[in-house]
Amino acid sequence: MVQAQRELFSKEHGIAARTVYDGIGEGGDRSLAIDRRSEDIVFGELERLHADGYDFRAISEERGEVAFGTDESGAAVIVDPLDGSLNARRMLPSFSLSVAVASGPTMADVEVAYVYDFGADEEYFARQGQGATLDGEELRARGPGFGLEVVGIEGAKPERLIPVLDALQGKAYRMRSVGSIAISLCYVAGGRFDAMMTGRPSRSVDAAAGQLIAREAGAEVAFAGAGLDVGLDLEARYHVAAALDREMLATVLESQRFAERPPSQGS
Q1: At CA 113, angle to CA 112 and CA 118, rounded to 5?
Q2: For the domain 2-138, what is the CATH code?
Q3: CATH 3.40.190.80 spans which residues of the chain?
Q4: What mean pLDDT do residues 93-106 have?
Q5: pLDDT band at 71, cuts 50/70/90?
Q6: Gap between the Cα atoms of 159 and 177, Å rounded
C-alpha cells in the first residue's frame, strides 16, 4: 500500500494537481480525487486478502462500510487511506496511511495497528499486548519529564480554539498542530508530544490505529472524555485525547471540554 501511494503522490505533484474534488465521501466530507485513489490502492490489497480466504468488513472514510465475504467473527479493518489530506493537498509533508484491525465493535477491540508517516518516512506498528514499534524498534511513551511542554491539537476551528487555549494557560508551554490525528497519537507514543487532543470531533478511521500504538507504548488514551468504549462505525463522532500519564491526560481533558461538541450534543 505504502509503495503504491508513494508512486501516486510522485505523479500527482503540486497543489493544483492534488486539488481536484470527487464528490462527498461516506464520512460526510468533500472528497479529493487523491483521497479516492489512495483508497483504491488500499482496497486493492484488501480484495487480495479476501481472495486468499479471509472474510472481514472494512470501514473506510470514502466508501463507508464494505463487506468482504460473510464473516461472523466481527473482524473489521478500519482504514484512513490519507489521514491529513489537507496537508497532502497543500504539499505539507505530514500525512499518513492508517490501518487498524479489530475483533469487536469498539476501540478497546483493536488488536493490530499500522501508521505510515509519509513526510517523515516512518512506520509505526502495534499488536495488542505486545507493545509498539517505530521502524522495528521499541517505542516508549516517555518524554523529558518537564510536564506539558508540548501539546498537539488537531482539528480546531479558530473560533473554538480560543477557549481551549485559555483553559491551558499556565498548564502547557507550547502547542503544535500536525494536521493528522494518527500522527499526533504516534507522537505521544514516542514522547515527542506530552499530550494531544482534538478540538473538533473525530471519526474512528482517524484514530483507531494511532490509539492502539499510543496505548501499547504506555500512553493514556481517552475517547469522549472517558475510556475506550466508543464505536468503530463511521457515523460516530467523538473527541480524542492522549497523554504520557494520567495527570497530563486529566489536564487536557479539562480544556477539551471547551472544544467543539459532537453533532449529537449540539453546537
Answers
A1: 155
A2: 3.30.540.10
A3: 150-265
A4: 96
A5: low
A6: 16
Mean pLDDT (the chain) is 92
Q: What pLDDT is recorded for position 41?
A: 97
* Model confidence band, residue 266 (pLDDT cutoffs 50, 70, 90): very low
pLDDT of 27 strictly over 80 = no
CA torsion angle 49 234 257 31 (round to 10): 90
CATH of 150-265, one of 3.30.420.40, 3.10.129.10, 3.40.640.10, 3.40.190.80: 3.40.190.80
Torsion on CA atoms 47, 51, 57, 61, rounded to nearest 10: 0
Under the banding of pLDDT at 50, 70 and 90, the label for residue 186 is: very high
Residue closest to 30 by CA, chosen among 21, 43, 41: 21
Task: Report residue 156: phi and psi, to 5°.
Answer: -110, 130
State the residue for C-alpha cell 492522549: 242
Measure the CA–CA gap between 98 and 85, rounded to whole angstroms: 12
231: number of CA atoms within 13 Å, CB side?
Answer: 6
Task: Measure the CA–CA gap between 230 and 198, rounded to whole angstroms.
Answer: 15
What pLDDT is stored for residue 20 in this prediction? 84
Given a contact cutoff of 8 angstroms between Cβ atoms, the answer to whether 59 and 65 are in contact is: yes
- Over residues 199-247, the pLDDT tens digits come to 999 999 999 999 999 999 999 999 998 999 999 999 999 999 999 999 9
